[in-house]
Amino acid sequence: MVQGKRWVIGKPFEGSLTDANFHLEEFSLPNLNDGEILVEAVYLTVDPYMRMAMISRPAGDTIAGEQVAKVVESKNAEYPVGTHIVTSPGWVTHSISNGEGISKIDPNYPKDLPLSLALGTLGMTGRSAYIGMTEIGQIKAGETVFVSGAAGAVGSVAGQMAKIMGCRVLGSAGSDEKVAYVKELGFDEVFNYNKVKDIDATIKGLAPNGIDVYFDNVGGDFSMMMIKHMRIYGRVVVCGAISEYNLTDPQKYPSIFCHLLFNSIKVHGFTNFHYTQLYPKAIAQLSEWIQKGQLKYREDVTEGFQNMPKAFMALFLGANKGKAIIKM
Ligand SMILES: NC(=O)c1ccc[n+]([C@@H]2O[C@H](COP(=O)([O-])OP(=O)(O)OC[C@H]3O[C@@H](n4cnc5c(N)ncnc54)[C@H](OP(=O)(O)O)[C@@H]3O)[C@@H](O)[C@H]2O)c1
To answer: Which residue, judged by its Cα, is nearest atom 26 of ligand 1?
Structure first.
């Protein structure tokens, strides 16, 4: 019998998280039935959405999440031992699958790229950037695009895509080091939102004629302020609202409805899981751009399954530098 480890909720998630919200336990996996495979995690991912996914879930529930895993035992001819797959059993070292809801790493996956990218730029975060910029934001060459959370896993891809597609790209990030990195990626203008004295005036200075597409990763006050910089026919792509995920009190924001109305602005939220039909196109395009050297990526790799909570909490402190990945 195989012994696995899993991270479960220690104390239900409310407000900012601490070590007490996480509990590591061992569990036994049963023997395989026909058609099943036993997989072992190789890379796991921590993502901000997990904070929302686990809200109001009780202590003892396994924390949700995706991983790249390797088949270590198989009673399913489709998935021989050694096959790499992407699966979502949560924060666990081992799991059993009957093949439903998992996907093999594409045979065309570039051999020279790390498999961990299947959880980032060539996975959930990359395709979110792609779907947000194309299907939702409908960006066009010559437009001015603003990306908040520009140094993040989604934001860095979103901004580079907009550059590749011929837009003028502006962004904000939380430290000078992140600003320098985003500039290296080719953004036209970036500022440290923790440092500039007047964010409103900074944006006005960078985009005196307004923003066509705002790709929003952060929500909250910052994004409410951004709305009034939108041009006529502007599109707000609501990809994430990380500044709100740990809040416990309801927020009060100034009304934006008149500005939306009189400037014909569209605000469109989206969750990549609702656009699965676009995944193959997204991954093919992102992969091509990486291989041509047009799209760069950065991973923030934490070694060791035991360090998952630390890596997860770091996302909400802005401590990660690139896509947060856990290496087993
Ligand atoms: N719609 C979808 O399908 C989809 C898919 C994936 C992700 N998302 C969302 O997209 C956003 C970015 O995700 P990601 O994976 O790219 O994360 P990430 O950027 O790799 O990590 C989170 C970053 O958010 C910023 N942040 C943390 N707390 C913040 C706060 N209170 N206010 C403003 N910024 C804060 C920090 O960057 P700074 O230091 O620069 O502030 C931090 O490094 C998240 O809101 C996430 O939920 C949505």
So the answer is: 318
Is 111 found in the same domain as 34?
yes
Q: Is position 291 within any domain?
A: no
Tokens describing residue 33:
């039935």
Quick check: CB of 171 below 6 Å from ligand 1? Answer: no
Single-letter amino acid, residue 133: M
115 lies in the same domain as 140? no
Per-residue pLDDT of the chain (328 residues), as tens digits, is 899 999 999 999 999 999 999 999 999 999 999 999 999 999 999 999 999 999 989 999 999 999 999 999 999 999 999 999 999 999 999 999 999 999 999 777 888 999 999 999 999 999 999 999 999 999 999 999 999 999 999 999 999 999 999 999 999 999 999 999 999 999 999 999 999 999 999 999 999 999 999 999 999 999 999 999 999 999 999 999 999 999 998 788 888 999 999 999 999 999 999 999 999 999 999 999 999 999 999 999 999 999 999 999 999 999 999 999 999 9
The CATH number that applies at residue 6 is 3.90.180.10
State how many domains the chain has: 2
For residues 197 and 263, membership in a common domain is answered with yes
The CATH number that applies at residue 131 is 3.40.50.720
CA-CA distance, 8 to 129, in Å (whole number)? Answer: 29
243-271 burial, b if ≥16 CB within 10 A, otherwise e? bebeeeeeeeeeebeeebeeeebebeebe
Q: Please indicate, yes or no, whether residues 180 and 227 belong to a single structural domain of this protein.
A: yes
Same-domain check for residues 133 and 110: no
Residue nearest to atom 38 of ligand 1 (CA): 174
In a domain, 102, yes or no: yes
Say yes or no: CB of residue 47 within 6 Å of ligand 1.
yes
At residue 28, φ and ψ (nearest 5 deg) are: -100, 140
